[in-house]
């Protein structure tokens, strides 16, 4: 039985196996980001804190890129899809962050949700084809090849780090706070 907290986040299982724990914490952190952007308009998604140029809209687009990159491109060697495949990354390595200011809140959230749904399907496919030990299709420059397990742990770390940023930005927008 999945327990949903007051912010709509699924609590990770307290007694699940390794796969359930990894997926549980990743889903918790995905839901935390969704909570932090819920109900914000374009100005809220463009807000910054202090000297940082980081925005919640940029964070949504960046995490959509990270999802597509790790689960489609690295894990399976498949194209990330649009909008990523047609971006000139050499011209702007941070295009995901910069271009978000031109996108509507609805477009940003839809892109992130669509990409997360695709990632969930790709993780399910990988679990059936080797489980957590399934190696990625792409190796690193040093010759090592991460496994699905490593990618899932990395994704939990990626969301956890950015959710800390999201806490600060959301509080600056409307005072909403929470873990």
UniProtKB/TrEMBL annotation:
It comes from the Bacteria. This is DinB family protein. InterPro entries: DinB/YfiT-like, MST-like. Pfam families: MST (PF04978).
């Amino acid at each position: 039985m999945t327990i949903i907290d007051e912010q709509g986040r699924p609590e990770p299982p307290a007694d699940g196996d390794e796969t359930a724990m990894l997926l549980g914490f990743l889903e918790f952190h995905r839901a935390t980001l969704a909570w932090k952007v819920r109900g914000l308009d374009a100005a809220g998604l463009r807000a910054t804190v202090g000297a940082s140029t980081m925005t919640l809209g940029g964070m949504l687009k960046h995490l959509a890129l990270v999802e597509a990159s790790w689960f489609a491109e690295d894990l399976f060697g498949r194209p990330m899809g649009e909008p990523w495949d047609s971006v000139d990354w050499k011209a702007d390595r941070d295009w995901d962050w910069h271009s978000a200011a031109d996108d509507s809140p609805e477009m940003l959230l839809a892109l992130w949700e669509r990409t997360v749904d695709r990632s969930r399907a790709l993780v399910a496919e990988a679990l059936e084809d080797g489980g957590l030990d399934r190696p990625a299709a792409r190796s690193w420059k040093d010759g090592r090849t991460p496994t699905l397990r490593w990618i899932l742990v990395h994704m939990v770390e990626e969301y956890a780090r950015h959710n800390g940023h999201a806490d600060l930005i959301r509080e600056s927008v409307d005072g909403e706070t929470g873990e």
